[in-house]
Specification:
The structure is a homodimer.
Chain A lengths: L10 H9 L5 H19 L2 E3 L2 H12 L14 E4 L26 H8 L10 H7 L7 E5 L29 H8 L5 E6 L5 H7 L2 E4 L19 E6 L2 H10 L17 E4 L10 H16 L3 E4 L9 H16 L1 H7 L5 H7 L7 H22 L4 E5 L19 H6 L3 E8 L5 E7 L5 H18 L7
Parallel strand pairs in A: 2-3, 2-4, 7-8, 7-9
Antiparallel strand pairs in A: 1-3, 4-6, 5-6, 5-10, 9-11, 10-11
GO molecular function (chains A, B): catalytic activity
Pfam family, one (chains A, B): Amidase
Protein name (chains A, B): Amidase domain-containing protein
């Protein structure tokens, strides 16, 4: 494979090739830009992209001696357009913030840039921060999002790369689509309900919603403080690991997981199982069969009845926190805010602060309980979505299978490998106790190998 | 009183005078600037101030017809230098962010600006946001802070206006000192441990830490996500009410409080009472006597034993969340970060994620319980500080009496009126259940009248 097809590589593969001298960063980035040129009109994953700037970054990075490069040096990354980047505007898919350009890097962006910026170590720190505007890794651009990562309506421009008549999911629509379509190896998204796991499933990629608060959310505009989490998209678990390293994600103790054989999975169909369509039912059944065929135990586990209220508690927290966090936009430019978000501030659903506290406190009480339950198993296996990506671009799909885990703050990874009845990708989720993110990544890597090999769906460029 | 002495007014008094045509905004602001000129060398409350810009704002505001002015039109406000303002740099008292200038207004700043910006309503929204860079109310400047509002070491420049050999408290040092010294009528601060209540007490002003999450923290740099709260300083409860209105603070139901006579207060000395010095013991005793003399019941209430762990849980949350939120600065410029914050990231105290979750979940379980207990009374009466402001500027004072309420997310108001044995001001705290902020303000207004009249300390300019 020459540089021409380099867009097909995962980030880990590309970085290894660059380090081995087999490809320049500019060559790699040019391959991605050609892919974007060909595909952008059909997919529309980008809210902001500046090709000259990307090439300028790549050429500057190529000049850095190998000995002074950080672990992510030259890794191209796409960033959901609700995360502040001081080298690009951040518009939240809202006319209120059209062309807004806060000169601020989110904490996640600082960590990523720094992972490639070792050679700046001797400069004074102000200079370091200034220099970080020049991205290491390569900041490819900002990806489309549902309005404020909160609206159920997708960005009108973005289509599922596997079928342009279908939604790529949301709210991290562009991040899921760009990675699924080989336009970027890695992307950042966010999840408040199902905004990382759902587009992961719909676009046939791996996506992780880490433990809430394990990665600093500084510089990610708030939709719901108790729910929003930075998410990561990639086409391989190795790439998720690269970003997890940069983010400093670590468990208290090393994972004892040694392989699928002898592992124990809890199948949690959850209270919303009746919503599962044929594609998801098939995917879960195949997943169970594959795991068992490779020597794992899979035990169906019904969560205690008190967990049944989680979707309702989640919705109350979402709406009542939205009242607080969208108040500024409601005051300043209500007419430019979608009716859904206006409704949060106007309390259309009728939830008052007492309802909010009841929901918050009830969810809090369940968190140590799910840690205890999940801790008995290698991982929980549970649906990511109700089915393959639905037709149309307006509605980004149902997050019914995601919201409980978002509320519980557990890490969740979508593992691709299955398909729906029209051949669209479907993934399933693995869940672990809070702050067992690295264990979960380790498990997902082995599980993913099996699901991708035997699940029935093949990723095609 | 002419414009010369206008700096002595509360914001409510000044705005009424301006609305009545008795004073221009420029005249008011010039009075404050003269006060600042005289006092700044002794107090050092400002991290950033641009007098020409303040006058420019004032003159522009004076040109707006009365009929088109918002409720806070022309109200000068000082802002703690950890809250982003798009018209002024934000440096967090950290060399890492020296002269940093993110072009972003915090949610709290947008709400305050908008409260005076009715006349902009017909412009397109982008233009509105751009125009908001010109402040209504008047953005007086940025006030000094402990490093990232997190370090126990005060800003070296800032002195207590009532005695320059003593600390103004922290971490909202400049906000407390500026309001206590009549350099600003109102200021924004933050509280993670005791950073709003303690400087309120030390500087002899009212200060409120609202219910956690009741005011959007967007644009306030994160120290601890589960603890940080925007705070407000003023020399009268009417002024706190003005800002609370702009922030949209509202209770589910109107307060039933009608006056001190017949009100019921719970005196909570808390588990750290043995730390209380003579000044605080005297203040609490006087407060109880005054309330009883005016017909209130005061009942001493021991919180259940499970509340005794709160100071320890608070400290664990503070340090372990600090590990997440100061990781970017630790990676980029560890040598410019104070040893205390480096220690959070390096886990000097040895707290792992399991300890963090235990602390978070344990605190969560206590929140509905304190709501229930506090809900039985008009308010809880409890110490604000261990004693009057200590000598020296290095250490900003102990937050022992504040941290439990910060962890519990309840609203707290410091009410001034008492003094220590050297004559320095001492306040006491009133506490209510979560989201009973407006009730608490109503109670504090009546309680404050009594304490200021009969508590023994007099505010002098």
């Amino acid at each position: 494979m020459g540089s021409d097809d380099a867009y097909l590589l995962t980030a880990s593969e590309a970085l290894a090739k660059i380090r081995a001298g087999g490809m320049t960063i500019e060559g790699y980035v040019r391959s991605l830009l050609r892919r974007i040129d060909v595909r952008d009109v059909d997919v529309g994953a980008w809210a902001y992209i500046d090709k000259d700037y990307i090439l300028q970054q790549a050429r500057a990075l190529d000049k850095v001696p190998m000995s002074r490069r950080g672990p992510l040096h030259g890794m191209p990354i796409a960033v959901k357009d609700v995360i502040y980047t001081k080298d690009m505007p951040t518009a939240h898919n809202s006319p209120i913030y059209k062309d807004d350009f806060p000169k601020l890097d989110a904490a996640s962006i600082i960590l990523l840039r720094h992972a490639g910026a070792l050679f700046l170590g001797n400069l004074p720190s102000t200079a370091i921060l200034m220099s970080l505007s020049l991205a290491y890794p390569v900041n490819l651009g900002k990806t489309t999002t549902a309005e404020f990562a909160a609206s159920y309506t997708g960005p009108a421009s973005t289509r599922n790369p596997h079928n342009p008549a279908r939604t790529p999911g949301g709210s991290s629509s562009g991040s899921g689509a760009a990675v699924g379509d080989f336009q970027a190896p890695v992307a950042l998204g966010t999840q408040t309900g199902g905004s990382t796991i759902r587009p992961g499933s719909f676009n046939g990629v791996y996506s992780i919603k880490p433990t809430w608060n394990a990665v600093s959310r500084e510089g990610l505009k708030i939709s719901s403080l108790m729910l929003d989490t930075i998410g990561i998209f990639a086409r391989g678990v190795d790439d998720l690991d690269l970003v997890a390293d940069a983010f400093g994600l670590q468990d208290d103790e090393a994972s004892a997981f040694t392989g699928i054989k002898g592992a124990r999975f809890a199948l949690c169909k959850t209270v919303v199982w009746t919503m599962a369509g044929e594609g998801t039912r098939h995917a879960i059944a195949r997943a169970v069969d594959i795991l068992r065929a490779h020597g794992a135990e899979v035990e169906e586990v019904d969560l205690p009845r008190e967990f049944d209220d989680l979707p309702r508690w989640h919705n109350i927290v979402l709406q009542t926190e939205g009242e607080t966090f969208f108040l500024p936009e409601h005051r300043v430019a209500k007419e430019k805010l979608s009716p859904q978000l206006v409704g949060y501030v106007d309390r259309k659903a009728g939830y008052d602060r007492r309802a909010q506290l009841k929901a918050l406190d009830s969810i809090s009480a369940l968190r140590p309980k799910i840690d205890e339950i999940a801790g008995r198993y290698t991982a929980i296996l549970t649906p990511s979505v109700i089915d393959e990506a639905p037709e149309g671009l307006e509605f980004t799909g149902d997050s019914a299978f995601c919201v409980s885990w978002s509320a519980l703050h557990t890490p969740v990874i979508n593992v691709p490998g299955f398909q729906g009845h029209t051949g669209m990708p479907i993934g399933v989720s693995l869940v672990a106790p809070r702050y067992r993110d690295r264990h979960l990544l380790k498990v997902a890597k082995e599980v993913g190998k099996l699901f991708e090999a035997e699940g029935g769906w093949k990723r095609n460029a």
